[in-house]
Design brief:
The complex is a heterodimer of chains A (85) and B (521). Chain A is built from two helices and no strands. Chain A is mostly helical and 85 residues long. Chain A has one domain. In chain A, helix 1 packs antiparallel against helix 2. By secondary structure, chain B is mainly α. In chain B, helix 3 runs antiparallel to helix 12, helix 4 crosses helix 7 and helix 5 runs antiparallel to helix 14. The longest helix of chain B has 39 residues. Chain B is globular and about 70 Å long. The chains are: A mainly alpha (85), B mainly alpha (521). Chains A and B meet through helix 1 and helix 2 of A and helix 5, helix 10, helix 11, helix 13 and helix 14 of B.
């Protein structure tokens, strides 16, 4: 399928803005992965171990999952309005 | 050296497979490739799945797969900074990149510099951003060749002079031709194969090798016993002296990653804004993978790998533990892992040159067809340059240059990202900030003889070691903030802004008309 995007000389009038009041508070959740990883003294430890992994290692893998969870939650919370599309 | 026939055959099979895909890609989602939008951005048509494979294939390069475990093999805990780095990068992408996608879609920007040009009405600032991007990308492409070299070497392909470099030369020549032919569609299609091979390799490695070596406890135990005896004593757990460099490396690298032209090319090729947002949520699957890959460094220690070249650690581990056919599979994964990013990087550099140097300063009325022609040629030149770089200059130099590239590319953050949110900054102040960031970052790296990108600081008596890129970035920001009111007070012309606030929120693609008339970019 040919999908050449043609651009008229001046941009068409913008579609209505989709921002909803209150929804931006959800974005604060995105701070969690930063707080959880950028302060190494908190997790630079050998114990408790998990399945042979020192804490330093399994904690950071856990933070990957936390990061995903947080981003998915924020995505869903800020996209819900268009779910019926 | 003895060459294993089975491993080599499997390797060559996959290499031929992706070569065919690379050429077939020209017909995939067929469109007129004599248009920069199509050749250089895949027609901005990629959905969630393709974008996920493309960005994953783009960001996690062969060199990453070789260098991260090599770092862990050699230095222990500090090498794990790849994890926090790729954990925090996606919340940033989630916040920032949808805005860039929207404004770029609305104004048909092909490169980040196009945006800077439109936002600040400043070809000069756009040129600074473009040249920084090209400069940072070049050594990165060269390092992909290092990735290929490492696996060729591990397969026993050696020799002297021309014979040694011939396979590398061939691989890159083929890559150059199908990229020329198919543009961004080639790496997008090949990325499916690349990522599948990588996922399979790592999953097998992560279950099979620990089983063979006696479990994770044993692997970490072996690392703990061996690391303190490295030439530069290392440890399994981060030490207090390493805290600041660990987190500044993670933060600085995360801020820089999506300033690389090839990352932005991947983002702008998405079909709509939600594809970008959704990908920020699902891309961390690769972070998990990268963390596991890092641990291959410890497995190499536990398996008794001894090498003076840490980059060889993982290939040697595979040689020790995998049967020959799977070795060929794993090495193909790494080599193909080099082709995808190398293709996208050369396309991104070509787009930058075409739009922000050639069109801006030499041919303001270039037609889209002419742009595509120039971009195709430049993509060839860029790859040849990278090849010459690796074959003629010492490999160490490419690695040092790439470290420096990371420092440089972060200095484009204020112009690009802050510009997505505010027009408060004066364009000249941003340019001055950029210059200060580039100069100070380069100087800081020079004090370390370009061997590492973390440098010691002594601020008000507090001594610490931090990532030079982040330190230079702070200076960059300070200069831009101080000079902005100054330039405004001097009534320096602030340039026109062709964007409006709603442009940054545009949700979906406007109706796409099928190839009629003269498409303009």
């Amino acid at each position: 399928m040919a999908t050449a995007v043609n651009q008229p000389p001046s941009p068409p009038p913008p579609p209505p803005r989709a921002r909803r009041a209150g929804s931006s508070w959800w974005y604060l959740l995105l701070l969690v992965p930063f707080v959880g990883t950028l302060w190494p003294p908190f997790y630079a430890k050998a114990t408790p171990r998990l399945g042979g992994f020192p804490f330093f290692y399994w904690y950071q893998f856990l933070m990957v999952l936390v990061g995903v969870a947080v981003t998915v939650v924020v995505y869903l919370a800020t996209t819900r309005r268009r779910a019926g599309r | 050296m003895n060459i294993n026939g089975v491993a080599l055959s499997v390797f060559i099979f996959f290499f031929l497979l992706v070569t065919v895909l690379g050429f077939v890609a020209a017909r995939w989602r067929r469109a007129d490739l004599r248009h920069l939008n199509e050749w250089g951005l895949g027609g901005r048509s990629f959905g969630t799945v393709i974008t996920w494979f493309l960005l994953g294939g783009d960001l996690y390069t062969a060199y990453t797969f070789v260098a991260v475990p090599a770092l862990v093999f050699g230095t222990g805990a500090p090498g794990m900074f790849a994890l926090p780095y790729t954990i925090i990068v996606y919340p940033l992408v989630f916040l920032i990149m949808p805005r860039l996608w929207s404004v770029a879609h609305r104004h048909q920007y092909v490169t980040p510099s196009d945006f800077v040009r439109g936002r600040y009405g400043s070809p000069g600032l756009a040129l600074a951003v473009a040249l920084t991007g090209i400069l940072a990308t070049m050594p990165y492409i060269a390092l992909q060749l290092v990735g290929i070299q490492v696996v060729l070497q591990a397969m026993g392909i050696s020799g002297s002079g021309v014979a040694r470099d011939l396979p590398l030369f061939l691989a890159f020549a083929i890559l150059a031709v199908y990229t020329y032919q198919s543009g961004l569609r080639a790496p997008a299609l090949i990325a499916f194969v690349k990522d599948a091979l990588i996922y399979i390799t790592v999953l097998v490695a992560i279950f099979y090798i620990p089983h063979k070596l006696g479990g994770w406890s044993h692997i970490f135990g072996a690392a703990q016993a061996t690391l303190p005896h490295r030439a530069k004593p290392a440890s399994l757990i981060l030490t207090p002296k390493q805290y600041v460099s660990y987190s500044t490396l993670a933060l600085g690298s995360a801020l820089a990653l999506f300033m690389y032209p090839h990352s932005i090319t991947g983002v702008l090729s998405a079909r709509d804004r939600n594809v970008v947002r959704r990908n920020a949520a699902i891309l961390p699957a690769y972070s998990f993978l990268l963390g596991l890959i890092a641990l291959l460094g410890y497995m190499a220690i536990a398996a008794g790998v001894k090498t003076s070249n840490a980059n060889q650690a993982v290939p040697l581990l595979f040689n020790l533990t995998f049967p020959s056919w799977f070795r060929g599979f794993a090495f193909a994964a790494v080599a193909i892992g080099a082709l995808v990013p190398a293709a996208i990087m050369s396309i991104a550099a070509a787009n930058l040159f075409t739009r922000n140097v050639y069109r801006e300063f030499f041919r303001p009325d270039a037609t889209p067809a002419e742009e595509a022609g120039v971009a195709r040629l430049v993509s060839l030149v860029v790859k040849l340059g990278a090849l010459a770089f690796i074959l003629l200059v010492k490999q160490d130099f490419a690695i040092q240059f790439q470290l420096l590239g990371g420092v440089w590319v972060l200095q484009t953050f204020p112009a690009i990202v802050l510009g997505l949110y505010t027009r408060w900054f004066h364009r000249w102040a941003l340019l001055c900030g950029w210059a200060v960031g580039m100069a100070s970052g380069t100087w800081m790296a020079a004090t370390q003889h370009f061997k590492q990108s973390t440098v010691p600081f002594n601020l008000f008596g507090i001594k610490f070691t931090a990532y030079a890129a982040l330190a230079a970035f702070v200076l960059n920001l300070l200069v831009a903030m101080v000079l902005t009111p100054l330039f405004n007070a001097m009534r320096a012309p602030s340039g026109s802004d062709e964007t409006t606030p709603p442009d940054y929120e545009v949700e979906a693609a406007p109706p796409i008309r099928v190839g009629t008339g003269e498409p303009s970019l």
